[in-house]
Amino acid sequence: MGWTHCQSWKTRDEVVKAVMEGLEGQPSALVWEQKTWVHWVLAPMKGGGELIVCHLLEPSPNGWGYKGMDESMGPYYYSCPLEFLERTDDSPWKNARWRLEVLQRRAAG
């Protein structure tokens, strides 16, 4: 999946709002944003359960943009909140290798 940009997204908050409004149904109450360029969210799935999704955010001359990746894609970003891992431990989309890396990096400090 590539990047999505929009000229009307002038700020980081505007692109995050657009991403959240684009999720199926209502986003989970458990949403977490880093102060960096990575936004984590638990996205509700139609059949039940939740999916960990990482949105990379970037400004550009053509407005802000994002690139979404779910856990099954094994994003090379490991700042996912541990609570998200716990809430989705039985997820059919879980990526064991990625989860282990998240835990190891967190333990290393």
Notes on the structure:
- With 109 residues, this protein is of the alpha+beta class.
- The protein has one domain.
- Helices cover 27% and strands 25% of the residues.
- It has three helices and five strands.
- It has helices at residues 12-21, 82-87, 96-108, and strands at 4-5, 31-33, 38-44, 50-58, 65-70.
- The protein has a five-stranded antiparallel sheet with strand order 1-5-4-3-2.
- Strand 3 (38-44) and strand 4 (50-58) form a beta hairpin.
- The longest helix has 13 residues, at 96-108.
- The radius of gyration is 14 Å and the shape is globular.
- The mean pLDDT is 86.
How would you sum up this structure in a few lines?
With 109 residues, this protein is an alpha+beta fold. The protein has three helices and five strands, in the order βαββββαα. It has one domain (4-108).
Question: Any descriptors?
Answer:
single chain; 5-stranded antiparallel sheet; 109 residues; alpha+beta; 5 strands
